[in-house]
Amino acid sequence: MKSIILSALFLSMSMMLFSQAPLTPVARNGVLHVENGLVVNQNGVPPQLRGLSFSWSIWEGRKYYNPAVVNWISTDFKISIMRAAMAVQPNYGYLQQPGLQTQLMMNVVDAAIKNGIYVLIDWHDHHSNQHVEQSKQFFSLMAKKYAGTPNVIYEIWNEPERTTWDTVKNYAVQIITEIRKYDPDNLVIVGSPHWDQDVDIASADPITGFKNIAYSFHFYASDPNHQEALRAKADKAIKNSLPLFVTEWGVGESNGNGRFDKKKTEVWLKWVEDNKLSWANWNITDKDETTALLMPDAPVTGGWTEDQLTAAGVYIREKLRGLNK
After folding, report:
1. How many angstroms separate the CA atoms of 21 and 32, rounded?
2. Measured on CA atoms in the order 102, 73, 258, 278, is the torsion positive or negative?
3. Residue 17 has pLDDT above 90, yes or no
4. Helix or strand or coil: residue 157?
5. Is 252 in contact with 260 (CB distance < 8 Å)?
6. Residue 123: beta bridge partners?
7. What are the residues whose beta carbons fall under 8 Å from the beta carbon of 303, sequence distance 6 or more?
8. pLDDT tens across 146-163, in order?
9. What is the pTM of this model?
10. H-helix or E-strand containing 200?
11. Among residues 60, 155, 178, 248, which one is catalytic?
12. Are 193 and 168 in contact (CB under 8 A)?
């Protein structure tokens, strides 16, 4: 009898502990979709996801593309979303090493899924219209593998440069069509000209014929060219009911370096919070630049101490841990 009572008590305590375990971001929010010009969760409200972007999957940032880092930023930085920025055009990127780059992506995407966070699969290419067939190949593979997985978001063109909205839109329709052959529902993020800043232009002629399409908006908080006028462009897009997603922003300037102006950064963060937009901060790397989150030679498997974080890293970690409670 005593053993039965003890077993019952143990089971009861285990159930209590299990019931008190916090829900993961994906468990709380479920499948994301677009509704009335907003990216919303399963309850029809903006989830306001906040997290980190890996750097280009080459150069200094490549060594951090592993599950241990995903585990660390999920538990220590308390992110709810991460962005895997797969390099396409530079040397050793997808165009030269498609198998290796695809595997790097799947390594961290699968780790994100295990951690219950959202993940942006980012085709990190400034000239995607020149690589349509390669993009179709990659996204068809990703859509086949991850269709119906609520964690996964497809970002199909990172920062189109000096091009037209017609060019971006034409490319996007082709890639979305490919994705929708295998994944009819998961969120797709479309870029806009001039490094994902011309969202006002996109809002005047948005993509039609597909559901669950949102648009990336990028800014660098301390850049003198990324202040009131850039916010006004995004405000116009929001007024026109264009669903926005801040898939990349940094505390420094648009070249990744420059000043870290905390006052300007706070203005931008307030704007993002007021508009309930989800975001990913650039970037997980130990490169010697302002927007890098890690000091040189920070461990490649996470476990970073405060001394191993840059000023940006300390600031962003504090913000994430405070906001993602």
Report:
1. 23
2. positive
3. no
4. coil
5. yes
6. 86
7. 72
8. 999 999 999 999 999 999
9. 0.94
10. helix 199-204
11. 248
12. yes
